[in-house]
Amino acid sequence: MSYLELENISFEYPNQTLALNQISLSVEKGEKLAVVGENGSGKSSLFLCLCGIHYAQTGRYIVDGEEQRCKRKDRNKLFRKVGYVFQDPEVQLFASTVEKDISFGAINAGMKGKDLEACMDEVMEMTQTHELKKNPPHQLSYGQKKRVAIAGVLACKPEVLLLDEPFAWLDNQQKKNTIQILDELHQQNKTIIISTHDINFVYEWANKLVVMKEGRILAKGHPHELLEDEALLEQAGLEMPLILQLSKKLNLESRPETMEAFLKD
Amino acid sequence: MFISEKYNLLQAKLTWHPFEKFTFFVAFLLGSLLTQNILTPFLIVAGISAFFLSHGLSLKALLEIAALPMSFMLVAVVSIICIISRESFEAIYIIQISDYYIGFSQLSLDKGIFIIGKAMGAMFAFYFLILTSPIDEIEYLLRKMKVPDLLIELFVLSFRFITILLLFSRQCYLSQKKRMAYRSFSSSIRSLGMLVSSVLVKSLVHADFSQQALLNRGYRGEMKFIDAHGSFVLKRLILPIIGMIGLIMLGQFKL
Ligand SMILES: Nc1ncnc2c1ncn2[C@@H]1O[C@H](COP(=O)(O)OP(=O)(O)OP(=O)(O)O)[C@@H](O)[C@H]1O
Ligand SMILES: [Mg+2]
Asked: What is the dihedral of CA A224, A229, A232, A233, to 10 degrees?
C-alpha cells in the first residue's frame, strides 16, 4: 500500500464552493510529486486536506496504513507526519525571533537539549538561516521569511513535506537554493509534494505529476509523458515546457531530461 | 513603527544579559520615583543620555525621544504651577484679570520642576529598557518573572499581529493614495472606512491561517521556545544593585 492514499475525496468550503471533487490519488514514500493547474483549481485546498487542516466531507484518506478520521488524536499524529509550508510565510512566522520560531515545531515534536540543538543546527544550515537567527520576523525580506518558514516546518521532522508555491516571489538564486533543499530532502527519502506554476521546473524535477482543473484530477503520471500531450495541456491551460518545444522544433529524436543536458548536445 | 525599532541601533551593540538590563532599569526607576530632590533624576537623565550617545544614538534622535512625553507632561505641569486665586499672593510673577490673580510662586515652581524631573527620570528609565532590549528579551523577562503563560503568549502574538497589520495598513494606504483616494474630504472618509474594514477582514483571515499553521507544527495550547539566553552570572548584578542603592540614598537628601 502507498504511503498516502486518497479515495474519492470531496471537499466543500462553508460557502458551498466545491474545491475538491472526487479526488483519488496515491503517493509513494520518497516520491517527488508536483501538482499543477490554473488559479483556483484546488491545489491549496488539496494540500490543506492532505495535512489534516481541512477534513474532506466524503471519501477516505489513509496515511501509512491508518485511516484518518476527524479526531483530535488522529490529527495530532498526522501533523507529525505531514508538514505544510504555507504559500504566504507571513501567516506562519509568529515568534519574536527567527530562532524561536524554528525551535517551536521541534520542541512540540518532543526534542530537548542536545537533540534540539543538533536539529536546529541542521535545519538552519540547510536553509541558510544561521545569520538571521536573532532577527524578529517582521524585519526580514520576503525570501528570507520564506526560508525561515521552510526551516520551521523542517524542524518538526515530517515524513511528507507539502510546499505551496515555494518559488513565488523568489529571486533566481533563492530559487536554486530552495531546489537544493528539496534535493537534499529527497536524498533523505522524504516525500515531497509541491504545487507550482513553473512547468519547466516540473519537467526537470518531478517524478510524478498531477494535473488539476476545477477541483478534479485531469491526469496523473510521469511528467515526461503528460507534458507532451497537447490536448491535455490545452485543456488544463498549461504551456509545454521549453525543452519539449525546442526539441520538437528541432525534430530531435530523443527528449533531453534537463535544460543543461539539452544545451550540452 | 515602534520606538524600539526606530532607534534599535543600541540593541545590536549591547550584549548584556536581559536581567542585567532589567536591574539597571529598576535602579533608575526607583531612583527617580523615590527621590526627595531634583538632583537624582537629573543625574539619571544625564547618565542615560550619555550612555545612549556613547552607544551611537544621534543627538537629534535623543532630543526626539525626550520631546515625546514632553507635550502631555507640560500640560499636566502647567496646571500644578499656575495658581489662580481671589486674593493676591506672594509670587514671582502675577497678573490680575478682573477679580482673579493668576501667577506662580517659588513654591509651586519648585514643585512643578520636581515633578517634571521625576517623570523624566522614570521615562528615561523606560527608554533605557526599551531601547536596549529587543522584544524577545522582554518576553524572556516576563517568563522569568513567572507571568502567566497565557499573558505572555498573548503579548507575543499581539506584537506579531500588530507588526503585520501596520505593514498591511501602510501598504493599503499607499495604494489607495496612489489611486487618488484622499483628494477630497468625502472620498477620504470613504477610503478610510474601506481601509479599516479591509484591515479587519485581513486580520480575521490571517488569524485563521495562523492558527492552522500553528496546529500543523504541533501546537497543543502551549508555546515553548528554545532558551537562547545563556545562564546568568550573579556577579554581574553587583554593579546595578550598588547603583540602585546609591541612587535611592542620594535621593533621600533634601537639598
Ligand atoms: N477559504 C475559502 N472559502 C471559500 N472558498 C475558498 C476558500 N479558499 C479557496 N476557496 C475556493 O476554492 C477553490 C480552490 O481554491 P484553491 O485555493 O485550492 O486554488 P489553488 O489551485 O490553490 O489556486 P492558486 O493557484 O491561485 O493558489 C477556488 O474556487 C476558491 O475560490
Ligand atoms: Mg494556492
From this structure: 70
Among the atoms of ligand 1, which is closest to the Cα of residue A45? 18
Q: How far is B217 from chain A (nearest CA, A)?
A: 5
Q: What is the pLDDT along chain A (265 residues), one digit of tens a residue?
A: 789 999 999 999 999 999 999 999 999 999 999 999 999 999 999 999 998 888 888 999 998 888 888 677 777 788 888 999 998 898 889 888 899 999 999 998 888 889 999 999 999 999 999 999 888 888 889 889 999 999 999 999 999 999 999 998 888 988 999 999 999 999 999 999 999 999 999 999 999 999 999 999 999 999 999 988 889 999 999 999 988 888 888 888 787 888 887 787 6
Tally of CB atoms within 10 A around B166 = 14
CA A22 to ligand 2 center in whole angstroms: 19
Angle of helix B18-33 versus helix B39-54 axis, rounded to 10 = 150
> From A155, which residue of chain B is nearest by alpha-carbon distance?
B217
What nine digits make up the cell of A149?
518558514
Atom of ligand 1 nearest to the CA of A20: 14
Nearest ligand to the CA atom of A86: 2
Q: In terms of CA atoms, which chain B residue is nearest residue A50?
A: B216
Residue in A44, A91, A194 to alter for ligand 1 test, most ligand atoms within 8 A of Cβ: A44
The CATH number given to whatever domain includes residue A77 is: 3.40.50.300
ipTM of the complex: 0.81
Q: Where are the alpha helices (DSSP H) in chain B?
A: 3-6, 9-13, 18-33, 39-54, 59-67, 70-81, 106-132, 135-144, 149-178, 185-216, 238-252
Domain count for chain A, please give it. Answer: 1
Contacts 24+ apart (CB under 8 A), B23-26: B23/B237, B23/B240, B23/B241, B23/B244, B24/B128, B24/B240, B24/B243, B25/B125, B25/B126, B25/B128, B25/B129, B26/B240, B26/B244
| A120/B226 touch (CB, cutoff 8 Å), yes or no | yes
Question: Which residue ranges have their beta carbon within 6 Å of ligand 1?
Answer: A 13, 15, 17, 19, 37, 39-45
The number of beta carbons lying within 10 Å of the beta carbon of residue A242 is: 13
Chain B residues with a Cβ under 8 Å from any Cβ in chain A: 5, 134-136, 139, 156-157, 159-160, 163-164, 167, 206, 209-210, 212-220, 223-226, 228
The Cα A136–Cα A95 span in angstroms is 8
d(CA B215, CA A193): 19
- In total, the C-beta contacts within 8 angstroms joining chain A to chain B are 95
What residues make up the domain containing A23?
A: 4-264
Question: Whole-structure pTM over 0.95, yes or no?
Answer: no
- Alpha-carbon distance A197 to B148, whole Å? 46
